[in-house]
Specification:
The protein contains twelve helices and eleven strands. By secondary structure, it is of the alpha/beta class. The strands form three sheets. A seven-stranded mixed beta sheet has the order 1-7-6-5-4-2-3, with helices on both faces. A two-stranded antiparallel ribbon has the order 8-9. Strands 10-11 form a two-stranded antiparallel sheet. The radius of gyration is 20 Å and the shape is globular. The protein binds pyridoxal-5'-phosphate.
Length: 374
Amino acid sequence: MKYPFLESYLINAPYSKEIEDALLRVARSGRYVGGPEVEAFEKELAEFTGTEFAVGVSNGLDALRLIFMAYIELGKLRPGDEVIVPANTYIASVLAITSAGLVPVPVEPDRRTLNMDTSLVEKAITPRTRAILTVHLYGRPCWDEVLAEVASKYNLIVVEDNAQAIGAQASFPGLNGGSMTGALGHAAAFSFYPTKNLGAMGDAGAVTTSDAALAKAVRALANYGSDRRYHNIYKGYNCRLDPVQAAVLRVKLPHIDKVSKRRREIASLYNKLIVNELVAKPLIDNPDGAVWHQYVVLVEDRDSFRNYLTDNGVGSDVHYAVPPHRQPCYPEISDLSLPVTDYLAERVVSLPVAEYLTDDMVTEIAHIINGYSK
Ligand SMILES: *Cc1c(COP(=O)(O)O)cnc(C)c1O
């Protein structure tokens, strides 16, 4: 394959020496759980995001679960409360809700942005609705005036699934004034899974918030429910961020704006160069906002398109072929009518968009795409 969909080693190549130094530093430190690398990364991530606190955790799903469980411990959510969530999202968004004993209420996407259609959120609210989980899917902020207003009007907790959108900027300010994803709502979950825009060398995640009580509860829950040594205020878990991963992330975080910028350039170049009526390109509505975790096109006959790409040396992927309400583990939402989500699930194709692609490579991939016909 001349243009694989994604190669993690190529993403890490520019930092390989620094990463190796960081790994060695941890190996020699003797500090293998918590410690200065984790603390420094938390400080750097909070600073980057513009929140008061960041808590390093084991992965993105745990970051989301810990936020919901912490709100339950603090008495702000109760099991059985409804949480509005985009129907078009990765399964982890919904798993976090149900694993905390909460009830997901999926809302259809906007056909233009593929993010949750914020104009449908108010209609989905019932007397049991207590929170919104907004997902910045494919790196595009899912945040606007409508969402902010509904959240305030109904006094809802807003959690961001920021797994795909570190460094993205919303064009409308968040509840605390900032506009960067991760600082828009009351709390946000990050994933540093190796293929995410900021990827570790294994599983890793974080929670950001400017709510001191929430940060404290998340930190305690992630550490056996312990607020100080051998003193357990919650029936907690072990979901801590590994210092090896923290050290790797500290090398890469300072470069994330450069990564976002390059991904934006690639997305704009694709949008300029792809001219094929069989391939619907993504909307670029807020050019400095999205960070293009995925560049997703819509194609009617997906299998034939992807086979054509493979035959021509271009890798692709699908995010996601089976939406949460179609998963066998979710019979409770399988009866919902979510035609836009189903429509997208049959047509979405993710093209290579990693920051190491050169303009020439993108031009050649676009040229290959333009040669696709039925
Ligand atoms: C990757 C991802 C997660 C889960 O993160 P992990 O670190 O893989 O557990 C959650 N939500 C979305 C939207 C994701 O893309």
